[in-house]
Write the C-alpha cells for this entry.
Amino acid sequence: MQISYRPYQLKLKHPFTISGFSRTATPLLLLEIKYQNYTGYGEASMVPYLGETIETATAFLNKIDLNSFNFPFKMDELMAYLDDIAPGLPAIKAAIDIALHDLSGKILDIPCYKIYGAHLAQMPLTSYTLGIDEPAVMLQKANEAIALGFKILKIKLGSNNDKLLINTVRQVTNLPLYVDANQGWQSKHEGLEMVNWLASKGVVLVEQPMLKTNTEGNRYITQHSPIPIIADEAVQRLADVAKAAGSYHGINIKLMKAGGMYEAHLMLQKARQLGLKVMIGCMSETSIATLAAAALAPLCDFVDLDGPFLTTNNPYKTPFFLHGKYILNNNAGLGLIM
Ligand code: MG
C-alpha cells in the first residue's frame, strides 16, 4: 500500500463565523492510497479549533505502515492499529479510512453506500449553513441557498442577537430551519425559552445549546423542548454516544470527529440502539469527504453536508444535487468525479 498526500487550503465562500470563531480558509490534507491497480481517495479537514494541523497529520503518516493490511480490509483492526500509534487525530485517521472505503468499493465494484446497506431512495434533504453575520449578508446568503435549491437552512446562533438573525432570515423564506447554538447559550432557562421561541418560528431542531460539559443544562433543555435537541460538540467518537442518551434527543456524527466511515457507522448503530436520532454533518470539505458522508446519509434522520457549496476551490466536481438532496452515482467506490 502506497500513501501519497498533499496539503490544500480550502477557501471559504464567506468568512465563516460561529459562536467564538471566524476564518476564511481551512487546511486540508488530500490523500491517495494505491493498492494493486486501484487508487483510493481520502481527505482530512483540519478546522483549527479541533487542534489537528498539516504538521500533526504528516507526522502521523510518517509513523504508520499499512503494508500488513490486505483486502478485504479489516477496519476494526486497522482503526485499533491507528489508535495505538497515537490517540486522537480523528481527521487524519478519517482520511485513511475514507481512502480505504473508496478502495474497497472499487475492488468490490460497488458504490460505497452499498457497503453499509444504504438505499438512495432514503436520502434525506441536506441543509445549507448560514454563519453568523450582519443582517444584510444573512439575507444575501439565504437567497444564495434558496437559488441553489436547498430546502432547509441551518442558522448558527449563540451571539447576542439570535432573534434578529432568525427574523431576518424569515423575511425571505418559510423553509424549515435548523439552528446550531454551538454551545453559545449560558443559562438553561433562557436556552429553553429560546428553543420554544425558535420552534414557534419554524425551527425544527437545535444543535448543542449549551457547553458540552454542561450535561445538566443540556438535559434540562432536552427534557422540556418541543423539538429535537442534537449533541454535536458533546459527541466525538463511539465512546461518547452512550453519554448522549437521556441528555439529548440525538447526535451529530461527523467523519472528521469520528475518525472516518467505519466508526461513524458504529456510532450510528449505537445511537439507534439507544433510541437516539442521528444527524450527519461535515466540516469545510471537498467532494471526497462529502461523498463519504453522503454514503451513510440515507441511514440518518438529518443531513448537513453543504461543504462543497460553501467553498470556492473544491478541486473535484460537486456531487450531483437536485431539489435539496444529493443524488449519488453508481460508480464503484465514493463516486468521486475529477
Ligand atoms: Mg454543530
About this structure: The chain has two domains: 2-109, 114-326. The first strand starts at residue 2 and ends at 18.
